[in-house]
């Protein structure tokens, strides 16, 4: 995920229900849009995102269907082939509206405003967004991606298809799809966080957890490409986001999905060990001018190690990923300068280093993952019996760790190692579950959380965030929650998870952002947030491994 560009960050006022012209663009599917960029994420907040609870009286007036505008003939112009095509297109639109199937897109709502995806439980697990109008009164059938519409009909994607159909509740395809989703969930576990230590009661996170798991599966393509979300600028596979999906699938007992993602990353890796910033679903690199991001190497190495640790516990075999590990770890070890730091690079903000407080040195958003990745690679080498590589990468990790102590610690672990450096969420990257606990780092995390806090209960990505300063980012909230869950700060973790649960869409899906009015302000689902929530819930019930220091 990335956040640097944020081209459309205005917060739109709520749109009355009668302004929605009955458009139900499930046909304008995610498959037609292919530019994701957690970087260019729209932060507009729309009043009609399927959130019934956000409407004061709890009801939404029925949408008004408006006929297409009359055609106007220009004086002195002959009506040639272009005019004929326009007439034909408008007649097709009118026919679609009359049949109640796919209709013209709602131009008033943001394109990302779907509150969730429709699936069908069958391979290849295609997901198509449900429009806000259709989502009013809709809900998922239990533990599935099949949607029951307000009128009782069912929306699903048939097995082997990529387009949704609307069918009766008694259609045998409904039961088949629900059984398939239920069976997949039962193959693993649904982390719930256990019982509330304060009350001893269930914390009611199961539905959020199951939905996050099912959404991650819908976002994972058959070739292992793990998409950040379904919509436009988000419909790409970032190695960074993919790494967390691997970890989430690993802890929930879905190793085949984790292996598929790692296999995809192995196939698209460059010979020098680097990855592109992001990839199309077909595995081709996106050529949009943005530079490769060094932190992705660290995250993929950590995820590979994390998967391997869990595969040993469960008896699953690790795919042949050693060449990928060696290329990435060697690249990181060779990249260190005399101080022990990697070069300046974009990180999860996807911001060019020249915009940082210290353009010459890497941010903590780069250094933290590099340290975790080198430690992870060294342990993988040791488990493999390769003492030479284990020692080489351990030494490199030690140099990075010493550089963090010299360069970042004196200033309180800010994003850039300078006096008065601003805090950001990347301080959690040098803490559990990525590094052993340290009291000074824990204090810095608390400082960052305080400085990034918003009145709506969420957090900004960083102190003095240059984007919309009223919109909370759910991955950052979840990252603080994961650190708390793996650091025995259970109350803090529950608070973060409860906030995330309370700010899901009407279908119970985790969005990318939340506006000042508490409504989703970005696409849903967001794979990175879903992964972090699953890891956090797991961590409340089980110990999470941390890459060894030596």
Task: Describe the protein in words.
With 550 residues, the chain is mainly alpha-helical. Helices cover 38% and strands 3% of the residues. It has helices spanning 81-99, 132-135, 172-187, 206-219, 239-251, 255-268, 295-314, 322-335, 364-384, 387-407, 439-452, 474-485, 490-502, 527-541, and strands at 117-118, 128-129, 139-140, 147-148, 154-156, 165-167, 472-473, 513-514. The strands form 3 sheets. It has a 4-stranded antiparallel beta sheet, with no helix packed on it. A two-stranded antiparallel ribbon has the order 1-2. Strands 7-8 form a two-stranded antiparallel sheet. Strand 3 and strand 4 (147-148) form a beta hairpin. The longest helix has 21 residues, at 364-384. It is globular and about 70 Å long. Residues 4-107 have low confidence and may be disordered.
């Amino acid at each position: 995920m990335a956040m640097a560009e944020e081209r459309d960050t205005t917060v739109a006022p709520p749109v009355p229900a009668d302004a929605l012209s009955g458009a139900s663009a499930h046909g304008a599917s995610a498959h037609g849009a292919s530019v994701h960029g957690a970087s260019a994420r729209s932060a507009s907040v729309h009043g009609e995102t399927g959130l019934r609870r956000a409407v004061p009286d709890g009801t939404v007036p029925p949408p008004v269907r408006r006929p297409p505008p009359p055609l106007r003939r220009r004086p002195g112009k002959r009506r040639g082939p272009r005019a004929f095509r326009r007439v034909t297109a408008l007649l097709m639109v009118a026919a679609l509206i009359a049949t109640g199937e796919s209709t013209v897109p709602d131009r008033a709502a943001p394109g990302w405003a779907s509150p969730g995806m429709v699936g069908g439980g069958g391979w290849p697990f295609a997901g198509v967004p449900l429009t806000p109008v259709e989502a009013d009164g809709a809900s998922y059938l239990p533990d599935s991606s099949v949607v029951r519409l307000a009128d009782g009909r069912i929306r699903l994607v048939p097995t082997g298809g990529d387009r949704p159909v609307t069918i009766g509740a008694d259609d045998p395809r409904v039961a088949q799809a629900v059984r398939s989703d239920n069976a997949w969930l039962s193959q693993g576990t649904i982390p719930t966080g256990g019982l509330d230590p304060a009350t001893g009661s269930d914390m009611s996170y199961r539905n959020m957890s199951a939905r996050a798991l099912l959404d991650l599966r819908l976002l994972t393509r058959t070739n292992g490409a793990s998409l950040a979300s379904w919509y436009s600028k988000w419909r790409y596979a970032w190695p960074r986001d993919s790494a967390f999906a691997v970890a989430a699938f690993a802890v929930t007992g879905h190793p085949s999905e984790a292996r598929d993602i790692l296999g995809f990353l192995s196939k698209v890796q460059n010979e020098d060990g680097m990855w592109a910033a992001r990839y199309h679903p077909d595995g081709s690199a996106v050529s949009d001018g943005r530079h490769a991001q060094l932190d992705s190497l660290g995250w993929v190495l950590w995820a590979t190690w994390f998967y391997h640790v869990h595969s040993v516990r469960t008896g699953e075999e690790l795919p042949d990923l050693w060449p990928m590990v060696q290329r990435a770890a060697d690249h990181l070890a060779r990249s260190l300068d005399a101080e022990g730091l990697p070069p300046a690079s974009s990180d999860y903000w996807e911001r060019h280093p020249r915009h940082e407080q210290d353009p010459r040195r890497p941010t903590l958003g780069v250094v933290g993952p590099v340290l975790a990745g080198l430690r992870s690679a060294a342990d993988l080498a040791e488990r493999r019996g390769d003492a030479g590589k284990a020692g080489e990468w351990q030494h490199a990790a030690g140099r990075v760790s010493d550089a963090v102590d010299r360069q970042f610690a004196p200033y309180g672990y800010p994003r850039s190692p300078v006096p008065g450096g601003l805090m950001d969420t990347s301080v959690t990257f040098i803490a559990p579950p990525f590094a052993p606990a340290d009291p000074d780092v824990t204090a810095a995390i608390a400082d960052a959380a305080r400085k990034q806090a918003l009145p709506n209960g969420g957090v900004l990505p960083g102190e003095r965030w240059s984007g919309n300063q009223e919109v909370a980012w759910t991955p950052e909230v979840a990252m603080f929650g994961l650190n708390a869950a793996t650091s025995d700060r259970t109350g803090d973790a529950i608070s973060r998870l409860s906030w995330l649960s309370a700010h899901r869409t009407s279908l119970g899906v985790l969005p990318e952002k939340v506006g000042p009015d508490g409504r989703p302000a970005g696409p849903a689902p967001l794979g990175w947030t879903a992964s972090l929530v699953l890891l956090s819930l797991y961590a409340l019930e089980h110990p999470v491994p941390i890459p060894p220091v030596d």
